[in-house]
């Protein structure tokens, strides 16, 4: 082969430019890029097991309903105590296994009849809604009653712990404060 033929041959050969990215891919064969079927199936199986264990917890709302009702009950008890102080009339807060209600003694003119044994007036809040409520489905509670005197202190029923779903509602014997634990 003469010199001119070698020169033509060298011009026909492709020129390979080596960079850091071509060296990285050249070291790994093409069939080893990505995930294998076994790896994908293993990850899917792990995710499925976690979903089967944790999934039902996201859809069971009884714990949230129980906590919400315990907070609602504590708020209604606190409001009943405040109404007793603001009006100067005793307030009876009674709760059953199906709901609760706050009532005041019968009126005698502009004052409450302290000698009356009846509680005909349902306590209302600032927007006119009655202080009554029902126990949500899936939540269990026990019956109790509290009587707040005109000074806001408990006349009867204090110092108790009421179980509301998974929570405990503690009523202070001294102050009548209701706290959810």
Topology-level CATH name of the domain at 62-180:
minor pseudopilin epsh fold
Give the end-to-end Cα distance, rounded to a whole number of Å: 98 Å
Biggest sheet features: 6 strands, antiparallel
Low-confidence stretches: none
CA gyration radius, whole angstroms: 38 Å
Order of helices and strands: HHHHEEEEEEEEEEE
CATH superfamily heading of the domain at 62-180 = minor pseudopilin epsh domain
CATH level-1 class of the domain at 62-180: Alpha Beta
Which strand-content bin applies to the residues?
A: 15-25%
Keywords, separated by commas or semicolons:
rod-shaped, alpha+beta, 181 residues, 3-stranded antiparallel beta sheet, minor pseudopilin epsh fold
What does this structure look like?
The protein is of the alpha+beta class. It has a domain at 62-180: minor pseudopilin epsh domain (minor pseudopilin epsh fold, 3-Layer(bab) Sandwich). It has helices at residues 3-12, 20-27, 37-59, 62-87, and strands at 91-95, 99-104, 107-108, 111-112, 121-122, 132-134, 144-148, 154-156, 160-164, 167-171, 178-180. Strands 1, 2, 5, 6, 7 and 8 form a 6-stranded antiparallel beta sheet that branches. A 3-stranded antiparallel beta sheet has the order 9-10-11, covered by helices on one side. The longest helix has 26 residues, at 62-87. The radius of gyration is 38 Å and the shape is rod-shaped. The model has no long low-confidence stretch (mean pLDDT 81).
């Amino acid at each position: 082969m003469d010199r001119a033929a070698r020169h033509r041959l060298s011009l026909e050969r492709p020129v390979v430019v080596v960079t850091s990215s071509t060296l990285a891919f050249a070291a790994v064969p093409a069939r080893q890029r990505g995930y294998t079927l076994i790896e994908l199936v293993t990850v899917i199986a792990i995710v499925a097991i976690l979903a089967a264990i944790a999934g039902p917890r996201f859809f069971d709302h009884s714990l949230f309903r129980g906590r919400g009702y315990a907070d609602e009950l504590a708020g209604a008890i606190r409001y009943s105590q405040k109404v007793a102080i603001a009006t100067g009339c005793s307030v009876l807060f009674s709760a059953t296994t199906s709901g609760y209600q706050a009532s005041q003694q019968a009126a005698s003119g502009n004052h409450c009849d302290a000698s009356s044994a009846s509680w005909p007036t349902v306590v209302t809040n600032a927007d006119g809604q009655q202080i009554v409520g029902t126990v949500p489905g899936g939540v269990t509670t026990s019956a109790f009653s509290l009587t707040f005197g005109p000074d806001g202190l408990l006349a009867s029923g204090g110092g108790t712990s009421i179980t509301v779903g998974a929570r405990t509602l503690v009523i202070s014997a001294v102050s009548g404060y209701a706290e959810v634990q």
